[in-house]
Amino acid sequence: SHNTPIGQANFPPMENTRILQAARGEEVDKIPVWVMRQAGRYLPEFLKVKESYDFFTICTTPNVACEVTLQPLRRFALDAAIIFSDILVVPQFMGMEVLMLPAKGPSFPQPLLSPEDAKRLIKPDPETAFKPYLDSIYLTRHSLKGKVPLIGFTGGPFTLFTYMVEGGSSNTFTKSRKWIFAHPEETKNILQMITDVVCEFLYAQVCSGAQIIQVFESHAGLLGPADFNEFILPYLNQIASFMKAKGRENPETDVPLILFAKDAGFMLEELFMTSYDAFGLDWTIDISKAKVLGQKYKKTIQGNFDPAMLYAPQDTIRARAFAMAQVGGKSGYIANLGHGIYPDTSPDHLQTFIEAVHTV
Ligand code: 1CP
To answer: 86 CA to middle of ligand 1, Å?
Structure first.
């Protein structure tokens, strides 16, 4: 089980470590490529599994989570697997109920309406709360047979906070944006509680077999620079510092860290000053400019193909993906989309994207 010390877990030897090398700024033979949300939604074989299980049942049933994690790897020459789970398991750990409603998406029956509600939040017992997720990682790392590295992940504290306040998806995020300014100190207390759980959960994922970590701060674009520096950046910084300190204490747990802060291109330089190794970029960022800045700060960049462009004719996808990957280059670059793949994307079009990257 995941309780085996990492040095004794007997994980299979690795065949392909391009993503780990690229994240560390080393030269690679081919540009590594993976796709945000690559497991699930757009694959017919996933939809088949989903007929039999509720979403969070898949996440908490290790052999099923493992199966859907491996599904895209059977079709495509991806250079990483990402464990099937969701960012919203962290609010669940903290005592909040989260449902995944068909067609509607995530829903919190009791969101945080006022600071009073934050008293309901608990500090989880990692042994019990994290267990199914860690067992999934351990099983999947073995089942991958060393083919490609396994990515563990979490939501960023600010993004998780917005869901906990909004109670689900939102187009405007007015509830959470109002909350922050109405209750700044209480907001920071909650962000700190989330950060503490995220740190513990990420380190446990690495101890269970995750070889690289991505933090999804998907709602990083909701605040201006000064408030970004107050409510988003310090917590992201804490996560990276915590993981790097753990990695120094126990070198077997020293894994690369990727930060995907969507719509935060206006803070790129501040982000590059943190101790994350790699930065996921959305499609609004000029990748050649990001590359120059990345070289200055010795940071790897990841991205940033517009997921909507996967609806273009395949010749267009091929040309645009090739051009993007050429700019990214064979060191300090990981190819990916600029956000998650859309549910009605053609798997053939995704295949064209992946192949085009590998021809560089
Ligand atoms: O990447 C993978 O394939 C692994 C699994 C994974 C990951 C990394 C899932 C499965 N979700 C996520 C991350 C995630 N979840 C993010 C960060 C990335 C992003 O910005 O897209 C976010 C914001 C969520 C929250 C979430 N979960 C949403 C978005 C809601 C919104 O605000 O619009 C949704 C729709 C989900 C459900 C979900 N999570 C994952 C899947 C396959 C699904 C669809 C569930 C279904 O098919 O019923």
So the answer is: 6
Whole-model pTM: value is 0.97
Topology (CATH) of 6-358: TIM Barrel (3.20.20)
| 183-203 confidence digits (pLDDT tens) | 999 999 999 999 999 999 999
Ligand 1 pocket check for 49: Cβ under 6 Å: no
Please tell me if the CB atom of residue 71 comes closer than 6 angstroms to any atom of ligand 1: no
| ipTM for the whole predicted complex goes beyond 0.85 | yes
Helices (H), 51-173: 55-60, 62-75, 89-93, 126-129, 131-143, 157-166
How do strand 278-280 and strand 300-305 relate by DSSP bridges?
Answer: parallel
Of all protein residues, the one whose alpha carbon is nearest to atom 22 of ligand 1 is 87
Of all atoms in ligand 1, which is nearest to the CA of residue 37?
Answer: 1
Domain boundaries, the chain: 6-358
40 close to ligand 1 (CB < 6 Angstrom): yes
Instruction: Please identify which residue in the block is written with the tokens 């790699």.
Output: 278
